[in-house]
Amino acid sequence: MMVRAMVAALGILALAACAPLAPQPDASDRAAAELGVLSLGIAQPGRFEAVTVRLDLPASAAGSVLSFPESWGPEEDLSQLRRDTATRGLERLPGEGEAYRVAPGGGWIAYTVAQDYDGEPDWQTHRLPGMRARTAQSHAFLLGQTVLPTWSQGGVPLTLDLQSLPQRAAFSFARGDCATGCALDDLANSVLALGDFAFDTRQAGDTTVRSAIRGSFAMDADAMSGVLAGMLDQGAKRFDDAPFASYLFAVNPIPAPPQGSAVVGTGLHRSFLLLASENADAERLRHTIAHEIVHEWITRRMGPTDEATDAQRMWFTEGATEYFAWKLQLAAGLIDTQAFLAGMSDLANEYLSSPVRELPAGELAERIFESEEAQRLPYQRGALLAWHWDMLARARGASLDAAIADLIDEGGAAELTDARIHAAMARRIGTQFDSDLARYVVQGQVLNPMALTRPRCVVAMQGPSGTVRFAIEGGRSRDTCRAEILGPA
Questions:
Q1: Residue 184 in contact with residue 155, Cβ under 8 Å?
Q2: pTM for this model (two decimals)
Q3: Which strands, in side-by-side order, build the sheet including 139-143?
Q4: Residue 68 has what pLDDT?
């Protein structure tokens, strides 16, 4: 009996061996199974009052956690922008914030994004009009950081499904950009513009530039693209980095403040966003565009930073960026030598007249969104020090450009820590960097712009009211001084 059972079992095995095998997934199928999908669309065809978002998460994402932001920069109560949330295979975690753990088999989450205020943004209600989601019948405009979650442990790569978006749309990632997967952090660091924007695509050197502009400004799309092309070219040369294959810039109008004009820029992933009142002048628009493009290198190409403590290193992230915004405009021929010196003079005088100029870094980080003066201090103080440090590095046969290039070369997935910044700067600048940083940034002692290390062709003059003006030394040509300010590329 036992022998017959064994023979029967062997016969079954022999038959199974002769049967054709089920098709096995190839490498591309297995890779696709590891990818998630971010889908974006609109709730009603031709209308933009609501934007739909869905994240489909594979089994490989099991155990990771999606957390939705409640604040970003000056914006708070961001949960009010989302409604009609539905999930499958996601466990809502207890606690004050909204967070979900992905189940072993994967799952999905879907929700709708809509603005949480009536009409256009205004300065009385919003600390920075334009950062919150704007969804209206004719157009929609939103930043991913305010409506997309963060993902613990980096999550899994995501493909991008934009098929349900209308043709009147621009996202920082084009259709097909994420065929092999993109990080959710990069997708969140993007802008989405829908509806009655003017969309365009053009070539700027080796870079394909896409634009989405809504409103009428002192600079048109051609002029803005020209600034972008010049800055990308000079940034690649100065920081020894390859140019970008594609780039997007989006411009959205915001109400003019009660007095004057407003221009606000935000650097994003291979893109920037410009929020501007339509009465802003061309010079201010040009400089803000230049500043935001420099953020591609400082700090985006250097590696991720700890956002919780980012305000403490704004002397570098914003101050060095502000200095190079002026320097690269000069290198690209967008401004002349006198305009560069006028810009540095303005920074010096804004700093000297600032009521918060003696705030040490730690206290400034806590008060950064309290006032415009607090927000501007890292730009002023950091840019003046960056110019001074560039000259100190130049005396050692180096440059601040080289310190930026060092940090980019070390970048990628590595976190951009304070220790990395300090090491790169001190290596190129020398021992005075640490003492300057401790005195003027960490402790908040008043910096004397007249005592800055300057190019030999530049003189500093002080007026009777204490204002400072940088100018070309008498008898020196503008072209010679320009070359001395820039140094070798």
A1: yes
A2: 0.85
A3: 134-135, 139-143, 191-195, 169-171
A4: 96
